[in-house]
Amino acid sequence: MMVTLLAVALGGAFGTLLRFTVGNWVNAHWPQHFYSATLLVNLVGCLLIGVLYGLFLLRPEVPAAVRAGLIVGVLGGFTTFSSFSLDTLRLLESSQAPLALGYVAVSVLGGLLATWAGLSLTKL
């Protein structure tokens, strides 16, 4: 159990730092599109969770600590649905309802599609 906890903690630290780095990079290049960093991270995270899930189905011998470290730790620290909610609220508060609704639709539908695509990649 301690190995799994350590894997999740280290993975979470890595995922969080990666998310922070992506956010800073996107905001430095497109500050007017503050929500783009969250969208990018969520879509990539959904794709990666699909790939990992598919790989783990194909390789049941992968240790539980590795699975938890990657999915709960890295991807849990990397993906940002709480930030997604705040970004949506900020768009609504600034009277940008159509953009907010589009953002929600692309995030949710795009996330589902990316997860499916990631899982499908493991079946090739």
Automatic annotation (TrEMBL):
It holds the Pfam family CRCB. It catalyses: fluoride(in) = fluoride(out). Its main location: membrane. Na(+) binds at G76, T79. It is a multi-pass membrane protein. Keywords: Cell inner membrane, Cell membrane, Ion channel, Ion transport, Membrane, Metal-binding, Sodium, Transmembrane, Transmembrane helix, Transport. Fluoride-specific ion channel. Important for reducing fluoride concentration in the cell, thus reducing its toxicity. This is Fluoride-specific ion channel FluC. It comes from Phytopseudomonas seleniipraecipitans.
